[in-house]
User: Fold these one by one.
Assistant:
Number 1:
Amino acid sequence: MSTASKTLDANDARLSPFEGGGKMIAVGFGLGAVGLGGAAALGAGAGDHFEGFLHSYLVAFAYFLAIALGGLFFVTLQHLTRAGWSVAVRRLAEVVAGTLPVLALLSLPIVIPTFLGNHALYHWADPAARQEDHLLHHKEAYLNNTFFLIRMVVFFGFWSLLARYFLKNSTKQDETGDPEITTKQQKLSAPAMILFALTLTYGAVDLLMSLVPHWFSTIIGVYYFAGAMMSAMATLIVLAKYLQGKGKLGDIVTVDHYHDLGKLMFAFTFFWAYIAFSQFMLIWYGNIPEDTIWYAPRQVGQWIPFSIALILVHFAIPFVGVMSRHAKRKTGILLFWAIWLLFAHWMDMFYVVKPTMIIEHGGEAGMLHLSLMDPLCWVGVLGFFIAAIGMGLKKHRLVPVKDPRLTESLAFENY
Amino acid sequence: MSSAVASHEIDNTRDDPTRRAQLILGGQDFHTVTEMVAGIPEQERINRNWWFAFTLAVSLAGMFGLNIAYLFWEGTGIWGNNNPVGWGWPIVNFVFWVGIGHAGTLISAILFLLRQQWRTSINRFAEAMTIFAVVCALVFPGIHIGRPWLPYWMFPLPNQMSMWPNFRSPLLWDVFAVGTYGTVSALFWYYGLIPDLATIRDRAKTKIRKFAYGVFSLGWTGSARHWHRYERTYLILAALCTPLVLSVHSVVSFDFATAQLPGWHTTIFPPYFVAGAIFSGFAMVVTLAVPARAFFGLQNLITLRHLENMNKIILATGMMVGYAYSMEFFIAWYGANEYEGFTFFNRAFGPYAWAYWIMVSCNVISPQLFWFKKIRTTPWMMVIVCIFVNIGMWFERFVITVTSLHRDFLPSSWGYFSPTIFDIMLFVGSFGLFFTLFLLFLRWLPVVAIAEVKAGMPAAHGHHEEHGHEAEGAATHG
């Protein structure tokens, strides 16, 4: 495109690394320590072999993992499609994906105990249960402690390496401006996408579906992916607004970028509903006990209003709210909906994880089992997530200043 | 057919991050684009090859009609459908044709929302194909209802007996889903045609022609007010069409997945069917676009880059289909349900293993050839791959339908389905109907969206600094 009206100075202070990153790190570590420390203390005091704590922790962990994976998908997709519009916000997505190594560390409270045979979270992690239960015995080739550990190492290793690779090359281009780097990233993006799809799917199978090891659903990977993309788009909107509020980015990220991010956020809100409906409707219609074990406890007691609220908060209300052009172009309104949907994503993860305590661990039916550990764990993981983002923002320019398609990204308009 | 690829094919498939490739080649301006496209329906003498193809298509369509007449006379017993396979080729053909019809709306609606300018050269073509495919699809359930003189019973019409269709049946949802889809696709297609029909009207040399194109261009004058309303409506129609791309084949998948039958009852069916539909739809677009562009000399409008982009979509959706196959297999094992496990084992190694492996080789393996740029950008090679994809997608529906049915839960109800000659003639005949409509479209309507292509050319944006080179004369945005 040749209509670039703005030219960029690579040393523009608005695009330089974020000075507030240090503060983000400090605050993040503070929140992380308080949140996770408090939750762990409560968990230890509960005397349930950390069962309550681990479930709360998994809700929070799956929540932020989804955002980071959504960011990684976004970056990969932009390279795969040779996108131009998104260059101005791509660095932010690269930084969000760059939290994956930190999330790999944060997976340890789940992975290590499970590997060592603690079955407070995953019933199948108990070797004795695998002997007694015919179905678990059948699945032992897949659901066993060692293979679980191996898979987690492979998945988090792949995600971390891929995220680092994209970020490293992109920031290298900030210095050299070499268009060959873009070509290289694009070449990698196609095979990376395949591995991403497989790792995300089996990650969702392992971390979420195997919570109820008798239950199965072929769509589970797509379900987790839909929520991941929606919440990643919301996160990018929040992050861009935050940085602009701090005097960064300036007019480089325009209302048209917000508009497009808003469209994608809207699209994936809708897509999530489509996938969630497909899964639910087919299981409801078939009405086979081996399928319905997952939904049945979610339709009892306190879970009834929660399930209905999930439909409203995650789909019906934002569907109407974000639909109009106005809502996506008034960035204040868009920010409101982004935060709203980030809350909806938490409800979704809570809905997916928590009833396990009833199905698998003898928790009282019909109860939400909401505890203080839920907000504490969320704040704790949020803290480390913010710190990881702060590290990225502090170190790198906020926009790929020498990306060959940046001018296109600065010039495009939604009409 | 594609040996006719012109020697003046210009390669615009190189990916250069610093600039967007040209989409309209050969130094075209607004006038030459109009000439190239509007010139086709304005030909005074109809090309002999067209007549040949048309005669063949009409003959096949006639065979289709005769078969249907015989079917109505004799009943569905003329088909291979029998216990335990009560759903045979008719449903397979229905799903196959509905799937073919998915590329059109994806290109016109979703790619429009994603600002993919390259879609303008192929959208008219693909939308037309969509409508004709939906027509072919609707024939099959229409003739399969047992009492073909009562098709209106499928609709919830108030009647003196207060009899209503079963709203819980996904087959009824199909009536609504496919009906809506056909209506909105036709509307969208016709709506896009209006400015181009007006162009042909304005160029018409005979009274009849002026009248005919005049009636259908609805008094279009091309005033700023017309354009303004046109573009607003186009955007809204695109947004309305987008969920339809997902909904139609999702509902078709519900026909199977709501059942409790192993091999049918699985939650990934809706998105998996949608991906497969787009996959087969694009394969059909490429299969037809390559000979059509050579035949009418449209290589500068439907360039190698357009074809390559479509092939990339075929590769991507083919991977999604492969993903769904593998998920189904994994869960068939992981779910530890012996009936589910048997069904999948039986698919791959039972009496229909030949069909299963045709499906896998055509749908999963053959699109992998599109990793090679050479194959992605050589017209005759891509047509071969795309024909394989279409064969594979037909077999996919065959495998899903027949393998899950032919071995019922009791071995006493096991059987082997074979089609009759009437099954085969109906399927072949449906291609006759499709090609009859398609050839009429090629002959009488603008096959490329003239106005939309022009809107993407640099001349439309008031800056001309790029002209000069032969290969770089026009539109950007790749």
Number 2:
Amino acid sequence: MAFLGVMQLLDREIAFWEKFEAHPLIDERYAGLKKVLPSDHRLGHITDVPPDSHIAAALYYQSQYSLAPWLIVTNQDTQYVIVDLLNPTRAREFCLLHSLEPVASSVNGVILAKRQHEP
Amino acid sequence: MSLALSFITIFLGGAAVLDWAFAGHLHSRCHFLLKCFLAFGFGLALWSCSYIVILFIVGPHLTWIWAKDMALSFLAATYFWFRPRYHHSKAHLDAVRQQAPRWLRVVFFVSACVAIMVFVGSTMRIPEGEWDAWMTWNTRARFLFRDGTDFATIFATEIAHADYPLLLPGLIAQTWMMLGSESIFVPPMIALTFSAITVGALVVAIVIFRGTASGLMAGLVLLGTPMFTMSAAIQYADVVLGSYLLVTCIMITLAASGMPYRVDRLLILSGAAASMMAWTKNEGIFYGLSLLVALAICKFGPSQKRLSRLNRITSFLLGALPVIALLAYFKLKHAPSNDYLQRITFSDIAGRIMDLDRRTTLFLAIGHKFFEFGAWNFFLICLPLLWLKFGRQSDRLTVTGPVIMALVFILLGLGAVVLITPYQMDFQIATSMDRLLIQCWPSIIFAVFLSMPPLHPQRRNSSSSKMFGNSG
């Protein structure tokens, strides 16, 4: 049975190499922002997916992971905000709707924005 | 240079602790190998804990970390210089001279190669690991490494599982510090190291107790559980916790086996290993308590008369004390409250235990796991059946009793945790049941193979048979 388990592992390995596709690194998504982050180490986070969803949680924690030691928070009291969009084509509308002024952008709909109204 | 010093600290520190605990007497290639695997496990924990102590006292200063490593290496070297020269007995070597069939060696070697290939392939595909790896462990390691003097950010409530202990983030961050760069391959290398410690310690320990064929077969069962390799490859801490649980079980069994070691020292070391579980993940605290209770209740094999029950408990607690003190300081002074405990009340617990739907869901899930655990195999149902067939013989049971009882407590406790979870039960079962089982899996394999007679008995030695409980 142990041998069959190993065979199953080998089968997975072969299937894996047949359709090998490396996941994009989380860091690549946020790389464009790293050099322009503000001196204030607290940043807000806002996204275009429903806030209670699995994807929203993934984007939030991925930004936290990538932009450490900047602390990413979800409350409204930060001057700067990470705008993390799944649909980058709506970035301009999204920022207007939330009164945000884009400061810098990374790839795939990740933007550093400043709140137009002081928190 | 820094990395070389770190390596020396880890190995020399671990080796000194192991040498002190084993205090000579038995010397064979297998015992030496076992000590090497265990030394790496203890050395890594010692290195991580000492880093966090320095962090709490003076902050993340590289000079202090260097000084700490040099001091630890010096202490270990001084120990080896002044330690007593032991006379090595060869009285019990026959038990480990049983040869395994050639085909079994080949299959084991091929399995190990396949497991490494799967690990490397998965690491190339997702080098940052899966959710818990980057969200819980690697994020906090990055805060420790990148945050200069203000490491306290890792205790912010916005950080995922900020109340989790720091063994793994401490190891990753300190390795980055010593490298001087944040290499993405450090977390996978640490995961691979702990997997190797787990497989190596399991195989060698079973070889010592039950011969080479049983040892290789036990290793094959572990390597043939796809989820074990996958959990290591995605860098979850479950393999690390499972590794320390196995080390604790091995130390307790060695102490109970009647081998001419210092029982008190082995129990001190098993307490230390149990405290490493608590310093890895929160559930490690519960695992340590389960082992302590089992140690207090069960008979203690041929070593029963060599150390009283009270002294056994005292030795175990003494070994656990330093890291538990560090954990208590971390929990009371820095860590935010646990989100699981925060959401739960006693009235909720009573209601959930009485809820028939929840109990049915749990039993169905457990039944399902018997046939599906580990992403493929039937081992989960096979191993308890093997134990029922072979493991209940009283002489073996007194040696394996504490470990088996602790594992029963742990599995019952994990079931209870799933039953009273404040989260959706289906979600809890889907996300954590396999992972909780994989933490216990190496120790379950160890306990079952220990309960069985040798698979391929060629040479038997009556004195060693009696000592190891090999009457089957």
Number 3:
Amino acid sequence: MTADAPEAIPVVFVIDDDASVRESLTELFTSVGLQVAAFGSPVEFLRNRATDAAGCLVLDVRLPGSSGLDFQAELARADIQLPIIFITGHGDIPMTVRAMKAGAMEFLTKPIRDQDLLDAVQRGIDLDRTRREQNRSVTELRARLALLTPREREVVTLVSAGLLNKQIAGRLGVAEITIKMHRGNAMRKLQAASLADLMRIVQVLGLQPPG
Amino acid sequence: MILCGAFILSIVMTVYGLVTEKRIAIEFARKELVGSRYLGAVRTTYANLLAVPEGSAMSAPPIHRDDVVFKQLSDLAAGADGHFDTHEFAGALMSTLRELERRRAAGGNADELVSKALAEAQSLAQRIGDDSNLTLDPDLDSYYVQNIVVRSMPSLLGRFSELQQFFEASIEKDASSVMRQVRLPILASQVASTAREVKADLQAAYRGNSDGSLKQAVDAGFGAMFVSIDSYLGALSTSTSGIDTRDAVTYNRFQVSAVQHGLKAWSLAQFELDRLLRKRIDGLLGKMQWGLALIGGLAGLSIILAILTHRHIVGPLRRLETVALAVREHKDYSLRATHSGLDEIGRVTSGFNEMLAELAAARRREIAARSEAARVARLTSMGEMAASIAHEINQPLFAIVTNANAGLRWLGAAPPDLGRLETVLKRVVRDGHRASDVIASVRALIKQDAPARAPLSIEALIEDIRGLVREDLQREQISLQVQLAYGLPSVQADRTQLQQVLLNLISNAVDAMRETQDRPRELQISAAIAEPEGVVIAVADSGEGLDANADDRIFEAFFTTKDKGMGLGLSICRSIIEAHGGRLWASRGNPNGSIFQFTLPCKGDA
């Protein structure tokens, strides 16, 4: 359902205060055909980043202005969900644990094999893509859900709770034929192929049965 | 000193009091002695007056004896007038005596004159007694003896004379028996009663004389006198009915005997009085000597006590003071006050010593804590330094490896992208150089362990620096002032390292003034002699000045306030200066900018 949507080219965002390191990382990622954007500091990144670009973030823990970990927290607060790959010269265990708990995808300690870094970046890009797809499908389902009438939504919720048409009719005080009609309309509007499909959609959207 | 003065004063006062008191008593007794001598002269007068029976032609009048008496009396009157007011009485007595002499020479009746002379002699004796303190005598024995000498004996002898005159007159003029019968017993009983007075005084004097010497000396004489008086009065009483001329000789003999015994007893009593007075004076002198000896002894004892006190209290206290001063001056807490003994001073001394020991221990603990803190700080800064150096070298190395990897990929691409490869390889070269630069800058830290020291002239050092930085300063529009004190000593130092330090400080100063627009950019380098450290060199700028927060951190390794820079500069500078035995510190300039100063010792023994 998303194959025909134009896929954004993923970008590797490199943030490092050391120009040499920045250049070399850019070179490495370019050499494997990745799109790269490098920044000297978090502030510079926040200022220039293309909105909602896909990709991942490669960060040195030791950053000018604020530490990489602080920057990680800052990104989380700003609801920027790029996967983060930390690289560090002297990462210790507490620092690693902290970064991972805060949602870092990878924590690489120098010296770093280039393949490890490239793999991590690739995983990050994939992860970001998956997440984006998920985000995108949820958005679409929400749009379909919005098409339902309140009664149809009510019926769908009760169906997902495992009630039979007759039971639902009894609870809502209407004829069973009416329930069948609502249910058919809802399935069509939500583009649910089967009852199982309907149940998955309800779960993804997090609909709760009333009462 | 005040105590000493008070002590001496009290001794002097005591001695003065004692001597004055005794001297008054002795003067008192001496005056009595003079009176007694005077009375001796009066007694001689009595002897002369009474020894010559009135109207008798049997012997010539003893004029020469009177002459002696006159002379004695006049001498004494003249000499004693200062003390005694006897002039009038003595004068009257002497004129009567001269008159008597003339009368006798003319052969006239002298009875009246004799009586007058005796009365005057008695008055004189009385006055002498009063004026010479004799009548105020403080001792019982001498008091009663003087009473006998001054009052009773003259009175007794006077009554003898009266009785004798009446008796002789009654015989010659054949006075009526009635008159004799009335008058004679009265006169006789007067003599007897006076004799009883003498006897009573004598008994009282004996009682007052504790050693009995008085009685031994005078009892026989007075006893003989009383016996002869009794015989005389007895003979007179048997003849009251009728006396004829034949009896007169017998009576006369009795009378002469009584008078002689009286005079003798008087003389004895007077001698004894002298003896008693002399004895009293001797006793007083002895007491005074004893008192003085006692005071002297007490004073000596006090001085010994004072010396002992000084030795046992003041001495140790002074030693304590000396030690306390020495400790304060030299901060040598190993000093101890010496004093053995369990007395208060000993306890104070041992307490003082314990306090010193406690101070020494506290000081040792403090020094240990301080050096431990310094050691920890050094270790910490070493660790930080190591971590930072690792980081600084790791960065280019990481870049090199990453670039190399990228290069391999460009090479392995089909077709190989040689253009990219060249770019990458250039970067590899550049980063390799960068890594080696970092190592070169770190080398200074390692190198300082074995600096090459040689005598170095401060003037030459600063002149070299001036040449090295001239162009940079001109480019930055900074004026340079150099102030060198006259006669700067040379120091033992590593020339290159000191150049490095100065260049670093100057470079910092230039950086600090880069933003300075509103005032002249001035760099001042000065060198002065610093006692006792040697030389102090200062680099002052007119730049931004130190940030208050950064003040104490600027010398830490890898601390930096600059955009570019490793933060090693000042840390290395301080290490170099401290390795030379000097100090490096920073302060704010006046009115602006900052001053970095360091000292170097003249004799490089560090």
